[in-house]
Amino acid sequence: MQVSGTFLAFAVLSLLTIGGAVFMISFTRVVHMVISLGVTFLSIAGLFVLLEAEFVAISQILVYSGAISILMLFGIMLTKHDAKDEGVSKANKGWLSILVVAVFFVIAFWGIQSTPWVAPPDNAAAVQEDNATQLGVEIFTRFVIPFELTSVLLLVALVGAIILAKKEEDNE
Amino acid sequence: MDTIMQYAWLIPLFPLLAFVLIVSFGRQLKETAAYLGIVAAAISFVLSVFTFWARFQEGAIDYKLPVEWLQIGQSVVEMGFEINQLNAMMLVIVTLVSLLVQIYSRGYMHGDERYPVFYQYLSLFTFSMLGLVISPNLLQVYIFWELVGVCSFLLVGFYYFKPEAKAAAKKAFIVTRIGDVGLFIGIILLFWWTGSFDYSVIFNAIAADRLEPWMTTLAAVLIFVGAVGKSGQFPLHTWLPDAMEGPTPVSALIHAATMVAAGVYLVAATYPLFLASPTALNVVAYVGAFTAIFAASIGLTQRDIKRVLAYSTVSQLGYMMMALGVAGAAGYVAGTFHLMTHAFFKALLFLAAGSVIHAIHTQDIFEMGGLRKKMPLTAGVFLIGCLAIAGIPPFSGFFSKEAILGAAYSAHRMDLLWVGLIAAFFTAFYMFRLYFLTFAGERRGGSAEAHESPAVMTVPLLILAVLAVVAGFVNTPFAPVLHQWLASGSVGAYIAEASGGETAHAALWVQVVAVLVSLLGIGLAYLMYVKRSVAPDLLVRPVPWLYQLSYRKYYVDEIYHAVFVRPLRWLGLFLNLFDRYIVDGLVALLASATNGIGALHARLQNGQVQTYGFVVLLGLVLLVAGFTVLGGIPNGQ
Amino acid sequence: MIFDVSLPLYLLIALILFCVGLYGALTKRNAIVVLLSIELMLNAVNINLVAFAKYGLYASLTGQVFTLFTMTVAAAEVAVGIAILISLYRNRDTVNVDEMDTMKR
After folding, report:
1. Which chains lie within 8 Å of chain C at 3 or more CB pairs, if any?
2. Which among B500, B200, B476 has a CA at the least distance from the CA of B334?
3. Can you tell me the distance from the alpha carbon of A74 to that of B123, in angstroms, rounded to the nearest whole number?
4. Touching A: which chains, 3+ CB pairs < 8 A?
5. Around B624, how many Cα atoms within 13 Å sit in the side-chain half-sphere?
6. Residue C14: what pLDDT?
7. Which of B567, B553, B548, B545 is nearest to B238 (CA)?
8. CA–CA gap between residue A128 and residue B45 (Å, rounded)
């Protein structure tokens, strides 16, 4: 039995990822949930490294583990400080959701299993060592318009979030 | 003068114009609305006289102006107008009587708050009646036929706040409708068989023997059914006496002189059709004869002055029908001749009766009496009318009645002759019973002080009285002007040719007997109600049921009520229940089912975002699962 | 037996993450948890994108570029979502999803 280092790393990271996700679902305190989700995000960053996407991995850590998790914590603090999730909502029977999600899982799994994945040709050499440089070139050449649009989107989200979260002073 | 006929279409137009104007400005015009109607009728009358005069010129041909209205496949439906001998005469009669009645109404209706409405209806009626008369085809006839029916309905129900008037209006409308259905079927059948509504096309088809005998008979009888409804012939006569609930001028115009004569006119106008079918002619003759004697026997015992006149109208219309039923030019001429004289003297009688009612506010003849002293003029013209209708020479009724009896005699229809004589006796008796009870002797009741009517009412009476006297001279046995004139028109010529009609006048003994019979009736009435030497209940005492039978109009209304009205009411009740519980129940069920489904769906819209998300996921899973089982997205192969 | 890392394994990981996120989004009452679950689902998709960028038939950097875009959009979404939540909490004093049904009325 031969286990490569990559595989080992993959196994550990994926276990952490799934474990974090499952814990997130099963914890009751919201703060714990956020922390376990942070573990998941970090593990996913690890997976990105395994997939030779270093820039994306860094971005993942910065955006998700950093910004979004902190934002969530702020959200919790600004609403209910010690918010607990009171379990499954009344609207749905939990087991029904589980059933449907399970069916979905089975179907998708069957789809993954039955698809004959073809390995990429060796000369594709798409992913190279100097990953970040290439990514930068791609973004500012081929994807420059989506990129600019994204910046607009971020600006709009920024302004919208400020307006929404602002106290309505004129009402008081 | 020929050109005047081209403008004959203006004749009905003036009353229509008056109608429109009174409808528009009636409220402002108040009683001046009468002048509009009168002026319009006067113009129409003058035009009619010119048209009539034009018809007397040598070689006047029938004038006809068709305008294409509709095209259905191969057949063209036309509108337009036609002037021939018969309807030229009718135009004069209708416009004249309408004019006089409208003048008279100025006095009679004075002070009524719906005065403009009355004139509005009268103008509409005059328009419809004139339109009916000049129609060149049966479809147009039918349209105007219904229009006069509507006017009759409106005018009978003029005092709509009286329940009797309301019921009478409804009865008039519904009973005539039964006849109208027959007429309509007849018209449709003729159109089906001949491809045209036009008189002349239909007559040509008959002359060319293109119709089977049974077809001709069926169509003729169906058209006659329409005439039966409109002219109040048995068994559809019941509406006409009830129609006396309307104002008296209306009774004179519509229910004596013009509209009820429309049935007779229709039979006369389609006479070639009847000539082709002996069966249909016999139906006409016997229905007419039976109505004549049947209505006359009812008239003997009625107590209401207008009802006596109404039954007399029904009886006289039966007379006309009987005359038309006697095949040949003689019968045709006699029927239309009597139609004309009857229009004058019956309008006169009704208007005179209206004058009486206007003066003393009652219609019961046993509460009248002795009115001759207070109302000499009315009494005089009423007497003239009675003499005319009783057929005493030289009044107009004598000549027309003599023409009818003569036609029956020369056609060897002795049964009809006897019926005619008996009806003449009844007529003379009840008319003079009416006259003596009303005007002779002493006042028997009623509180209102009698007085002579104003000039606006008596002048039309005088004009009509003159006409009732002299109208008969247009067709005397010595100078049958009307006969020759009618026979000179195209339809008249056809009839004369088809029946080989020479001027048929009765043997002298028939004339003598007819006059004697009338005098006998008058004498009997005199003895009973003036001298009182013969007890009026001479016949009543031994056979009281006979009197009751006559007084209650042979229980025809009661029989109709039991046979038709009651079962129909039950049917209506049943249908009502059916509608309420079964149809409405189904509708309610449907509504509540829809409601239920809606409520069910409203439960789905519970505002829970997660539920929606769940449903979306469920749908996606089912879709994907379905495709997986099927093995991919079917691409239509 | 050689255990090697291959495309299906990544896809499987992503699928599991996605399903967990889906379940959480459909059932959790707390709106913040629902938001977290949605982030989880987005991340699962990101894994797929990057995995295909390496192992896909036409391996290229496009997958990674798209991942970056997804992150941006997710960040914007979370920012606006949290803002909405705070605003809602201020007005209705709740963060429970099943009490946010005013659209129904």
Report:
1. A, B
2. B476
3. 92
4. B, C
5. 17
6. 93
7. B553
8. 115
> What integer pLDDT is reported at residue B59 of this predicted model?
64
> Whole-prediction pTM value?
0.66
- Minimal CA–CA distance to A160: which of B147, B177, C84? C84
Spans of all domains in chain C: 7-92
Q: Which of B243, B227, B333 is nearest to B288 (CA)?
A: B227
Cβ contact B161:B127 at 8 Å:
no
Report chain C residues whose CB lies below 8 A from the CB of A78.
Answer: 86, 89
Average pLDDT, chain B: 83
**The pLDDT of residue A169:** 63
Q: Which of B293, B301, B225, B228 is nearest to B260 (CA)?
A: B228
| Mutation site for A-interface testing, chosen from B618, B623, B629 by largest number of A Cβ within 10 Å | B618
Does residue B107 surpass a pLDDT of 60? yes
Q: Is the dihedral of CA B275, B281, B285, B287 positive or negative?
A: negative
Residue pLDDT, tens place only, A32-41: 888 898 999 9
Cβ neighbours for B219, distance < 8 A, ≥ 6 positions apart: B186, B189, B190, B193, B211, B273
How do residues B232-291 score in pLDDT, each as one tens digit?
888 888 888 888 888 888 888 888 888 888 888 888 888 888 888 888 888 888 898 898
Q: What is the pLDDT of residue B507?
A: 66
Question: Could you report the per-residue pLDDT of B513-561, keeping only the tens digit for each?
Answer: 888 888 888 888 888 877 777 666 666 666 677 777 777 777 777 888 7
Residues A10/C8, Cβ–Cβ less than 8 Å:
no
Straight-line distance from the first to the last Cα atom of chain B, in angstroms, rounded to the nearest whole number: 87
DSSP, collapsed to helix, strand or coil, labels residue C65 as: helix
Distance CA B299, CA B313 (A): 10
Report, in this order, helix, strand and coil percent for chain B, each rounded to 5.
Answer: 75, 5, 20
The CATH number assigned to the domain with range A1-113 reads 1.20.120.1200
Instruction: Find tokens 């996120």 and name the residue.
Output: C21
For residue B610, list chain C residues with Cβ-Cβ distance below 8 A. 25-27, 34, 97-98
Distance, CA of B112 to CA of B99 (rounded, Å)? 20
Architecture of domain C7-92: Orthogonal Bundle (1.10)
Say yes or no for a CB contact (<8 Å) between A104 and B614.
Answer: no
Q: Do B610 and A107 touch (CB under 8 A)?
A: no
Residue A67 touches partner B, C-beta closer than 8 Å = no
**DSSP H stretches of helix in chain A:** 5-26, 30-50, 54-60, 69-78, 94-114, 131-141, 144-165
Q: Tokens for B292, please give them.
A: 């004549």
Q: From CA B171, how far away is CA B177, in angstroms rounded?
A: 10
Q: Which helix (H) or strand (E) element contains residue C2? A: strand C2-3
Residue B478 has pLDDT above 80, yes or no: no
For residue B165, how many C-alpha atoms fall within 13 Å in the half-sphere facing its CB?
Answer: 16
Q: What span, in angstroms and rounded, lies between the C-alpha atoms of C96 and C100?
A: 7
DSSP character string of B311-323: HHHHHHHHHHHHH
Could you tell me which residues come within 8 angstroms of residue B258 by beta carbon, excluding any fewer than 6 positions away?
B93, B94, B97, B98, B129, B343
Query: Domain residue spans in chain A?
Result: 1-113, 124-172
Confidence class for position B502, pLDDT limits 50, 70, 90:
low
Peptide bond into B454 cis (omega under 30): no
Cβ contact, residue pair A104, B621, below 8 Å: yes
Minimal Cβ distance to A30: which of C1, C19, C30: C30
pLDDT value at residue B537: 65
ipTM score: 0.86
